[in-house]
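RECORD TYPE: inverse folding
INPUT: structure tokens
STRUCTURE:
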């Protein structure tokens, strides 16, 4: 059975060596191919998560 459409882009990011913390929320949001703004919203969400992942990685524990 193929992966759900909402999770396929996470596999693409992982394949390219991009790791994100906490993608659960992103997996719960549906993005429609026929919605012109959805790619921009998805890119914004991924950018936000990437920024937070980098910030957390830079903070010493």
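DESIGNED SEQUENCE:
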């Amino acid at each position: 059975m193929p992966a759900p459409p909402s999770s396929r882009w996470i596999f693409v990011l992982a394949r390219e060596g991009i790791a994100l913390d906490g993608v659960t929320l992103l997996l719960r949001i549906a993005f429609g191919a026929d919605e012109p703004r959805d790619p921009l919203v998805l890119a914004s969400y991924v950018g936000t998560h990437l920024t937070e992942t980098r910030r957390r990685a830079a903070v010493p524990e």
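NOTES: Residues 5-58 form one domain.
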